[in-house]
Amino acid sequence: MPCGVAPRFLILYGSQRGQAQSIAEEISEQATEHGFLAKISCLSKGDKYNLDREHGPVVFVVSTTGDGEPPDTALKFVKKIKNKSLPGDHYSHLHYALLGLGDTNYANFCNCGKTIDKRLQELGAKHFYATGHADDGTGLEVVVDPWIEGLWEALKKAFSRMSDSNQEGTAQGEATEKSTQQGAEIQEKLDSSAVSLHLLKLGDVETQKEKAETSASESETTEPSGAPLEPALIRSVPPLSQSALNVPALPPAYLEVRLEDVPVEEESVHVLKEDFREVPVSRALHLTRDDAVKSAILVELDIADQDMPYQPGDAFDVLCPNRASEVEELLSRLGVGDQRNRCVYLQLRKDTKKKGAQVPSYIPQKCTLQYLLTWCLEIRSVPKKAFVRALVEWTQDSREKRRLQELCSREGSADYNKFVRDTNVCLLDLLQTFSSCSPPLSLLIEHLPKLQPRAYSAASSSLCHPGKVHFVFSVVEFPACAEHPERTGLCTGWLVHHVSPILQPCGTITAAKKTADCSALPKVYVRSRISNTFHLPSDPSVPVVMVGPGTGVAPFIGFLQQREKEREERQNGPFGETWLFFGCRHKDRDFIFREELERFVENETLSHLKVCFSRDEQDGNDPEPKPRYVQHQLLLHAKNIVHILLKENGYLYVCGDAKNMAKDVNDTLIEMLGNELQLDKLESMKMVAKLREEKRYLQDIWS
User: Fold this and answer.
1) What distance in Å separates the CA atoms of residue 325 and residue 494, rounded to the nearest whole number?
2) Measuring CA to CA, how many Å separate 168 from each of 12, 129, 202, 603, 618?
3) CATH architecture of 544-701
4) What separation in angstroms does the CA of 327 have from each of 333, 373, 481, 492?
5) Distance CA 233, CA 637 (A)
6) Cα 285–290–294 angle (5° rounding)?
7) For the CA atoms of the chain, what is the radius of gyration?
8) Which of 261, 341, 524, 616 is deepest in the core (most CB within 10 A)?
9) Looking at the predicted structure, is the pLDDT value of residue 515 above 80?
10) What is the DSSP string of 197-242?
11) CATH number of the domain at 277-321+453-511+518-529, please?
12) pLDDT in tens, 603-618
């Protein structure tokens, strides 16, 4: 590569929760080390880039959200390129690479990335590097790390081809004398280095003393009893413990933090700025018996005083705080417990090498340290490898430092997945395990993501419950393991404790007594999340099939309440068949909404209710075993379901667990189509894909 101006390329990202943005920023950081200049922009900021005139290489990093939908920041871009009036050579000048992020626990894996990729190809754009699809279900880094590593050689070849064909893609007109000098200096460093600058060998970050101590620790491979040591979060075993490591480059620090004693403004303003409303919880009810394996709880919110219209199928975001006990522990561990009420001031470091560094917009300009750790940062998030790498620099013990290096290294990927990612280890768990690690507050703010709200499907219709919205949840439990103590899900655990003063036992029929003083009711921050697709068909004569085991039945309660009211208003109107497939463990313990569902059947709002109970004992006298799961019930009624979907243009809705149930239902649907229409598996899969494209096979699922 010539030593003149560093070649420039464009990075565009579409991110919902920050992962795609973080990866895009990592690519941007590494670009300089490889002799390139990277311009980075969010896809939503159309004024910052112009693909119609972009002749340099473009790198896309995009995630997928919901039922294969683009993230909010990519919606406008996807809509723009889908414009059917665009000519087939609209992007014939464009050379690009694309990294899609997804989760194979969901059916539409990397759908946004695939959609953009396919459409750019249709418009004449060309790949300069193979598309990557990273799976959050197995670990994004499994694909992301090697994809980024191979990107640099692909970029060199792309620029070389452009140069050979006199297509200048380096934006010479925008280069300044400063960038020319910078490019030459970067190239000089590259030429003089025998080791790739984005990987640091272990020897480059250890002192001779640390090496000796590390070697001593490596020889300790057995327990005192003589039994071989097992790997754990705190330690590795050979061959990893004796391997040279490819450790990622240290992420550049970019924030400066000051704590001052000054009056603090109303802190909750930042929550309200994100459209959250504080609303009272007017009722809370156990839907399952005490002896149920999992408890299900219904919460009723009073939104009568709020402008929050919704339809059945929409969801509500609930913003919950981090656990007070965990915030307290973190304050203590950081040595700033006595400064919790001081005001936090953030500014960019003048010496930062981080490109496009910004003070996080989700942190209020004036808030206390306690508020920041309670409402702004996701302290329960699994630390990414870049965070683990940064923690190395703040760890004193050489053995602990070595282990953290292993966990963030390429060679230690399996250990990172096993002991960090798969066990849901959080920052506090790492700090408890690695006792000599004492990171500064600035490092946490740089690496911990924004505290995200949790979405819950509306389990009601405003026609049936005006001024109210219901949602249902089960308390998520994380059993104790070697890496962390027993704990409950951040939001579900907080909710059940928060509503405990008004929580009614299972079987309570009458509504809670009205409280004269509304301030006595527990309150939560919520905002509506409008669905574009997960709604009843606009034509009520179209039949619908609903599959919702456990709490997955929640949105369908709203569907049926809505349909019940519509039938009352139009008694002679045409209404299509409604089928509901429901399942739970035990009929007598966790058959939630049983009375309401049976009433829907009785008044013909629900045409067919098909239930199954996976843990109830089978009747030995029954010649045929009863179906245990919803997919087994679907198979029993395959003829009817296939007829509804293909002959009557009906809709299929699935809600619930993505990891198991949704996959099983999808496989069952393929099997049903194959059996009923005598199709091979590939043709059946194409038919299922067509149902998705027509928005007649819809999912509201979670992992």
Assistant:
1) 12
2) 20, 19, 40, 71, 73
3) 3-Layer(aba) Sandwich (3.40)
4) 10, 6, 21, 18
5) 49
6) 85
7) 28
8) 524
9) no
10) TTEEEHHHH--HHHHHHHHHHHT--B-TTSPBPPP-SS---TTGGG
11) 2.40.30.10
12) 999 999 999 999 888 7
Give the Cα separation of 503 and 327 in Å (integer): 26
- The end-to-end CA distance of the chain, in Å, is 46
Determine the Cα–Cα distance for residues 610 and 596; give it in Å rounded to an integer: 14
Indicate the helix (H) or strand (E) that contains 610: strand 608-613
What are the CA-CA distances from residue 435 to residues 333, 335, 399, 566 (Å)?
Answer: 9, 13, 11, 62
Distance CA 428, CA 373 (A): 12
Neighbours of 633 (CB within 10 A): 21
Q: Tell me: the pLDDT tens digits for 257-315?
A: 999 988 776 666 667 677 899 999 999 999 999 999 999 999 999 999 999 999 999 99
What is this structure's pTM?
0.82
Fold of 8-161: Rossmann fold (3.40.50)
Which of 66, 44, 109, 48 has the alpha carbon at shortest distance from 698?
66
**CA distance linking residue 247 with residue 618, whole number of Å:** 55
> 3-state secondary structure string, 417-484?
HHHHHCCCCCHHHHHHHCCCECCCHHHHHHHCCECCCEEEECCCCCCCCCCEEEEEEECCEECCCCCC
Contacts of 573 by beta carbon, 8 Å cutoff, 6+ apart: 540, 566, 567
Q: Are 405 and 205 in contact (CB under 8 A)?
A: yes
Distance CA 527, CA 454 (A): 10
C-alpha to C-alpha distance for 141 and 154, rounded to whole angstroms: 19
Confidence category of residue 211, pLDDT binned at 50, 70, 90: very low
Q: How many residues make up the chain in this entry?
A: 703
